[in-house]
Design brief:
Blueprint (H helix, E strand, L loop, with lengths): L2 E5 L3 H11 L4 E6 L9 H7 L13 E2 L1 H10 L1 H9 L3 E3 L7 H4 L11 E3 L2 H13 L4 E5 L3 E11 L2 E9 L4 E3 L2 E4 L7 H7 L6 E6 L2 E9 L13 E4 L2 E7 L4 E9 L11 H9 L11 E2 L5 E3 L3 E6 L1 E2 L2 E2 L4 E3 L5 E2 L7 H19 L4 H15 L1 H22 L9 H12 L4 H11 L5 H5 L4 H9 L12 H9 L2
Parallel strand pairs: 1-2, 1-10, 2-6, 10-21
Antiparallel strand pairs: 3-5, 4-5, 7-8, 8-9, 11-18, 12-15, 12-16, 12-17, 13-14, 14-15, 18-22, 19-20
Helix pairs in contact: 1-6, 1-9, 3-4, 3-9, 4-6, 8-16, 9-10, 12-13, 12-15
């Protein structure tokens, strides 16, 4: 069995650590933020700070793919989440019966877990803390990589890390799971490695969100989708743990006219103007202000350049490997898919040949996880271009039939049981869109029921009215 160091104790880093330790490996998780989660959800929300996680206080929705991975791989984490009040839901079973149709055997796969990001991480940390062979060291900031004898001519081999305290920790494998702000490129440069191939772009979105607590009536009923694109804004209404929920408005960073949404009163007026979401404000705010997030990058990091690893003994996973628009909520699910893939690759290829392992993990990730990232990136680019067109008073008509088909599928989902399940399969990271559309009869149904999506009335104020609301006119 191997000695594995994971850098980063987020939800995915802890999940990866649990998977690897239960395969018999000795795992150390190094987290630069010193504070451990306190006891109790209110203390977690009120006092725990994670400066290394820029979306720590913003909404999180954990998709069915993540829930399924917990069910099959980490049932203790799922049980802990239930114990701390995380909300279990199923968007198929919760749908109106006329739309859902008879319950099907496969409907259990759509089960989701929702909770505030900090509460979910604290639950995973609690399970990790009592897992044999798994050590979590908080306040252990990594300064640099340390190297050992090269496994391949001209390619540095990572043999561990040096902490800012000066302590050296050796490892058979170092896994970077430090998230969106990963310093891996700098670490690699310091050991003389070739630079990784980074694709980097501002995601183009700004998020304004608040959390609420029930006044006694439970979580507000969902009158529309959890995520809805309404002209030049998108709105997320997400149930969370312990009768809490969040409401978030997402806009294009280029839409300067809407930047006043950072003001709580302006934000509330904008949400109140949305007929399907206004009632989500009927609770007690548990934030003291609107939480904003901007400057989020879409980034893909390739540690294989010209067919060769830039270093051995080191991999990147989760958001340190690829990070995308948080609106889709796919990051944790993709990260846990990659964590399970890491475990399986170590089991199959071993770490005795670091060169072979690095290549095997890269190719497995590219085949299994990367397509989900590419799909998400494509959807983001279309959404931003659509917003730009709407701001200019035009209509967005790209030369991409797959985009129009995705909108038609979303429209048909509220009219037919098969389309509902197909749409949610894509949304919940269970099936890719092309596979859903290849199902017998699906294309015909989508075209018949959803092709008129452009003519559907938008449950939101016009652009001019929205601007007037935000301007305070």
């Amino acid at each position: 069995m191997a000695r594995i160091v994971i850098v980063g104790a987020g939800v995915v880093g802890l999940g990866a650590a649990l998977l690897l330790s239960r395969d018999g490996h000795e795992v150390a998780v190094l987290e630069r933020d010193a504070a451990a989660p306190p006891q109790g959800t209110e203390e977690i929300w009120g006092t725990w700070r994670r400066e290394g996680v820029n979306q720590f206080r913003l909404p999180h929705f954990f998709l069915a793919r993540y829930c399924g991975l917990l069910e099959s791989e980490l049932p203790e984490v799922k049980a802990e989440l239930a114990a701390v009040g995380a909300r279990h839901s199923n968007p198929v079973l919760d749908a109106v019966g006329a739309i859902r149709g008879p319950v099907r055997e496969e409907d259990d796969a759509f089960g989701c877990i929702t909770g505030r990001r900090c509460v979910v991480e604290a639950a995973a940390a609690s399970v990790a803390a009592r897992t044999p062979g798994l050590e979590i060291r908080r306040g252990a900031a990594v300064a640099e990589l340390i190297t050992g004898p090269s496994a391949h001519d001209g390619v540095p081999h990572v043999a561990g890390v040096r902490l800012c305290s000066g302590e050296k920790i050796t490892a058979d494998l170092v896994v970077d799971m430090t998230g969106r702000r990963s310093p891996l490129r700098r670490w690699l440069e310091a050991i003389g490695a070739r630079p990784p191939q980074d694709e980097l772009d501002d995601s183009g979105f700004v998020y304004y969100g608040r959390h609420f607590r029930s006044n006694g009536d439970g979580v507000p009923p969902a009158l529309g989708g959890l995520v809805m694109h309404l002209g030049t804004i998108s709105v997320l209404t997400l149930p969370a743990d312990n009768s809490t929920w969040s409401v978030t408005l997402a806009i294009s960073a280029r839409d300067k006219a809407l930047h006043r949404l950072h003001d709580a009163a302006t934000w509330a007026k904008a949400v109140r103007s949305l007929p399907l979401q206004a009632h989500w404000l009927d609770g007690q705010p548990i934030d003291d202000r609107v939480m904003a997030m901007a400057g989020i990058e879409d980034r893909h990091r390739n540690l294989m350049v010209d067919g060769a690893p830039v270093a051995t003994g080191l991999v990147a996973a989760g958001d340190a490997w690829a990070a995308s628009n948080p609106t889709a909520g796919r990051g944790v699910s993709m990260g846990m898919l990659q964590a399970a893939l890491l475990r399986d690759t170590i089991a199959a290829a071993g770490l005795d040949d670091p060169w072979d392992f690095a290549r095997s993990f890269h190719h497995a990730t590219a085949e299994t996880v990367e397509p989900w990232y590419r799909d998400t990136l494509t959807a983001d680019r279309h959404r931003l271009a659509e917003i730009d067109a709407l701001i200019d008073g035009g209509e967005y008509r790209p030369r991409d039939p797959a985009w129009a088909m995705s909108r038609a599928l979303a429209n048909a989902a509220v009219k037919d049981p098969d389309c509902l399940r197909g749409f949610l399969s894509v949304t919940m990271l269970l099936s890719r869109a092309a596979d859903v559309m290849a199902r017998p009869g699906m294309l015909d149904k989508v075209m018949a029921l959803g092709a008129g999506w452009r003519e559907e009335p938008l449950p939101a104020p016009s652009r001019d009215k929205l601007l007037s609301i935000v301007a305070g006119d």
